[in-house]
Structures are given as structure tokens and as C-alpha cells.
Amino acid sequence: MVVTCHFVDSDRFLQKRVLNFCNVPHPHSGVVITNALRKCFGDGGIEDKVFTITVDNAKANDTAIKILKDDFELKIILPIEGRLFHVRCCAHVINLLVQVGLAEIGEIVYSVREGIKYIVASEDRLRKFSDILKRLQLPGKKLILDVPTRWNSTYMMLATAVQFKEVFSKYHKTDQAFQWLVSPEEWEKVENVNQLLSVFNEVTNIVSGSEYPTSNLFLPEVWKMKEILLLKCKDNNDYIRAIASKMSNKFEKY
Q: Residue 140: its pLDDT value, please?
């Protein structure tokens, strides 16, 4: 578990420090996480200086923060009666929203991912792919392979891959072992979904900043997401409406 501290110094500059990078044994229950955080705060001598804690939406984290809040309220007066003590990570909530949308084109995402894996696994295949790229005089960007648990890396993979749709088609004709060809109709779906996700990617980049305050930025960004979801829920494309509707339901939940 990594514990990162943000604070304002005497010159009123925002500072960031990693307080601890520690092994937390199984089971990762709320009590275990609480004990790890207690030790971290004690070692850092900041037990009476913690104003707010930001975590993702795991149930164990909810339990841990509730226990810590009860502990803190016995020792110090929390600002605003502790209403800001537990802050949920906005970037994590966005990830949950988008994963719902990406699941609707899961088979296409799988084909793109596996196709890229196949090509980049061999220098000879990659060279063939690059040769086709040059013949078509397309931009010299590189293929991107995503980290499936990070939605924005999947977005970048799709956004880059869609520019190479002609290259994938021609490469398939030169390598019969390449089994992950995406159809023109599927590429069109990817383009439409990417148009929707580009807003969420922009918001994620803004609220994930660590060198500047984000608490004053997240609300208009969240509103931007709500507006695009409301718009796409009325889209002409059935599957875009379906994706936006499911994402909107998840948005309202959080």
C-alpha cells in the first residue's frame, strides 16, 4: 500500500510526499488497512494533522476510513464536522463508469488487443506492419498495447489502432496466422465510442494531477461528463445510446 501526503508549506506552496510504501498482509480487510494507516501516521508524527483521506471505492476502504474517523474524532476536532474526512477518488469512479461502456464493445477490444500483441511479439511481424504503414503514407505513430485495468490506456490503444485499420487489413493478407481482423463496421463502432470516451479521458487527466490542487477542479469536470452522457443517451446510434445509458446509470449511482 502506498500512502501519499499532500500539504501546504509555510510559504503556501502545495507539497507532495510518499509517506510509506508498505506490505499489507492478507486479508485486506478494513481493520488490517486501518492498522497499517495508524502505524504510518504514527511514524510520520501526523496523527493530529490529518484533514482528509482520499481512497478508491473498495468496501474495505470504506470500513477503514469509518474506523479512523471515529478514532480521530476522539482526539481532535475535524474540520466541518468531518464531512470531508472521507473523499472518494474521482478518477477511480470514472474508471468504473468507463469500464461499463467498454464492456459493450468487449469483443472488439479483445480483437484489437490480441492483434497488437501478436504483431509486437515478433520483430519480423512488426517490420512487415511498418512497411505497409510506410507504403500507405500514414502517420508514423506506434502501436500501443493497453493495461486492461487502466481504461484510459485502453482508450489510447483504440484511438491509435483505428488510425491503422487499413494497415491491419492489408497485414492480414500477408500473414494467414493473424486471426484478429476487425471489420469496417466494428471500426466504425470504435470511432464512435472513442468520441464519447475522449471527454472522459480529458477529465481523467485533469483530476489525476498531483502537482496542483484538484478539489477546486473536479466539479465542473464531473458536470461535463453528465452533459455528454445526457446528450449521448439521445444519440442516433442504438449501441451508443445503450452504452451511454448504462454509464449514466452508474454515474447516478455514485
A: 65
